[in-house]
Amino acid sequence: MNHSVALDLRETAAPAARAAAGRIADDKAMLRAAAEIARDLHKARPAIFWGDMLASAALGYGALAATILAPSTGWALLAGTVAVLALYRALLFIHEISHLKHSDLPGFRLGWNVVVGVPLMVPSFMYEGVHNLHHARTRYGTVEDPEYLPLALMKPWSLPLFVLISALAPMGLLLRYAVLSPLSLVVPPLRRIVRERYSGLVINPSFRRRPAEGAERTRWLMQEIATSLWAIALLALTAANVIPLRAFLIFLGVIGAVTVINQIRTLVAHLWENEGEAMTVTAQYLDSVNVPPPGLLPALWAPVGLRYHALHHLLPSVPYHNLAEAHRRLTALVDRDSPYHKASYAGLPGLVHQLARSTMGTRR
């Protein structure tokens, strides 16, 4: 779903300083080194993908059941925390699916949708065909990038709003699949709105999704129908008291917590300092964030390789389980003054503080 608010939140100061970020020249030594060290790192390993995804989902659903059945508030909070973190990790495989060479992992997309995507009402079509635009050389950071907003140029109160609005995602997903999807089948103008505005995990409110074609369109429709049937059944069974209201609300609460954590991760995935100008690959890298070891917490809030988000923008086809090795090799290979080192940060608090200061700094 589009979790952003279509408001003009930008400040008017310092456009020249921000525009200069897009004119950073490419560091050819870094780009050559990245390509060199990754030659043997592009192949996904099925055992890791399937094992990690299924184990995360099993732990998440088990903890969700424990949360619903917990004998006390304390146990419910503990189990709920485990459910949120495990399902969050399972859900983030949607990012890997958008980059996969599917012949390397036959059936994984279908398996993930059955186990995670449809039950959590975030089928993979909502990211496939959208996320790749964020990696397009001429789109990143521009108004045509579905996953970019110049948050560093926005008003300070836009940051908490950006996070808090994501808590409404469970209700938005139910509305999208239980109500809008069926209605759009008989109301063509509504179908266009649903397809353009409510069929992608984006943060840019001006983004409009184009219609899918061929096999992609078939997959989209199958996933959408399955998710719609699931959402309708969920509401119907709750209304009939087959599913207790408390269990239903806990389920929505867990999904809401997952989307809030993901929105916080998104908040610090980039520096968000570009104001629409096309950027070089090096500029895109420096506008992105790595949070490498020794920190441990990023493994929880930026799992499935997303702690190496800047590196991912250099090597988008390297699967998540090889990014740590790619980082180790590249760190050892490039010079001390290489731009590669400038995208690594210590952790979440410092990144949030830096972004908040940026919003303050753009004010006159």
From TrEMBL:
Signal peptide: none
Keywords of the record: Membrane, Transmembrane, Transmembrane helix
Gene Ontology molecular-function annotations: oxidoreductase activity, acting on paired donors, with oxidation of a pair of donors resulting in the reduction of molecular oxygen to two molecules of water
GO biological process: lipid biosynthetic process
Keyword match Metal-binding: no
Segments crossing the lipid bilayer: 47-69, 75-95, 107-127, 161-187, 218-237, 243-261
Domain of life (superkingdom): Bacteria
Domain Fatty acid desaturase, first and last residues per copy: 74-341
GO cellular-component term (any): membrane
Pfam family for this entry, one: FA_desaturase
Protein name listed in UniProt: Fatty acid desaturase
Organism: Sphingomonas gei
